[in-house]
Amino acid sequence: MGNIKKLAGQTIWYGLPTITSRFLSFFTSILFTGFLVPYDFGQMSLVYQVIPFLNVIFTYGLETSYFRFAQTTDKSKLYNTLCVSMLVSTSVFTFFLLVSASPISELLKLPGHADFIYYTAIIIFLDTLSTLPFARLRQEGRPRKYAFIKLMNVVSNLVFSMFFLMICPMLQKGNPDWMSWYNPLYGVGYILIANLLASLLTLVLLSAEIKVIHWSFDQTLWKEVMRYSLPLVIVGFGGMINELMSRLSFTYLLPGAQFDVQGIFSANYKLALLIVIFIQAFKMAAEPFFFNMSKNEDARFTYARIMKFFVMVCGAVFLGVALFLDIWKLLITTKDPSYADALDIVPIITMGTVFLGIYYNLTIWYKLTNQNLIGAYITVAGAVITIVLNIWLIPRFVYMGAAWTTLICYAFMMVTSYLFGQKYYPVPYPVGKILSYLGLATVIFLAHHYLRSRHPGMLLLHAAGLAGLGIYGAVILFMERAEFGSLLSRLRKTR
């Protein structure tokens, strides 16, 4: 229990700012639905779907490699070598993006918007340079500064966005002469400029971690790191395909209305990604924790217990999203009621994201055993499933086709990773309890969904939602009464 308590403490330190940041980021996106019609929101979503793909290439697995090699290598030499590598490669990649902006915009069905690609390239350049300084803060256990800078990034992004989208139009009405530079129709462009300014501020706030970098490069160490990290590029790139291809596919599979459909799908996908707030918070603390724990004799037992607690919380978050769809609906329909057309995909996407979170927990086996290539194979197989099912299902079922593709892909990756993990690095996961908790959450949702289809009225519907959460919590407390009893006993002894 002591190790789990330690992870819980780290999750709070890294998790609370991450949760706050993700909530602010989430509501920033929801804010955009109040200023952008679905077509413009679709354009914005398309650009922001490209960024994660490029981030995988620009960072090429160096963050995870830093945590891995910091256990056995001189940290200063490792940090300098990886920072020099990333600076050189990022400069080269950014140059190619800038000179290829026009053809890239044409490829993305954004003709005449090479400027969007320019802004995107600079954003990725700045964000990539901050990757290793942030990893250094996490590895050294400095969560307060990490939290402050992450929060400032999201807050400044929100402030700059509100300035361009809300304040500038009001100023222009009263002062048309000196506000002649402002174009109210340039919405997506201003959102990218706001992001660029926030990324620049983040890099400035990380100046202390940047100043300690010396132009020192250990070629032998770099080659060793590359052998470990390059398969992670495939893992990351395949993961981005699995996560984002459904949204990108609308651009090519539904010509004519692709940006409207993509905008609606992306807005609802944002609702489903509320659960990612928890998963990301957990992952921030868990990744360095898992590496540090790997030398302990009871490491595998600890991983199993962590997985159980993780699934318990994921089930509750899933119900928090799925049982209160009508509340989330109000957030995205202030500008255009058509945003609610895809609301039924939210529970499917959310459960798929739960599977993704479980998969993230399971990946520790190949990171610890240096079997990253097998992890890459699993991710590539998931990417193939995503592409094939999107091509087959999206033209027939549109939003639902993309949603079920996401669920099937992540279920496949979760199960496959578990089976390989039990072969190469067996962990005694409580599979029966995990399936029971996921099944319980699903049954509660289906019962509530049936009630919702009967149109019982908002008051009764939300009361039933709260009752469903209560039932889930009561069952968990009963099933884990020994676990929670032990925890309470330990807490009393520490007072």
From TrEMBL:
The chain crosses the membrane at residues 12-34, 46-66, 78-104, 116-135, 147-167, 187-208, 228-245, 265-285, 306-325, 345-362, 374-393, 399-420, 432-451, 457-479. Pfam families: Polysacc_synt. GO terms for cellular component: plasma membrane. It is a multi-pass membrane protein. Keywords: Cell membrane, Membrane, Transmembrane, Transmembrane helix. This is Membrane protein involved in the export of O-antigen and teichoic acid. It comes from the Bacteria. It is found in: Cell membrane.
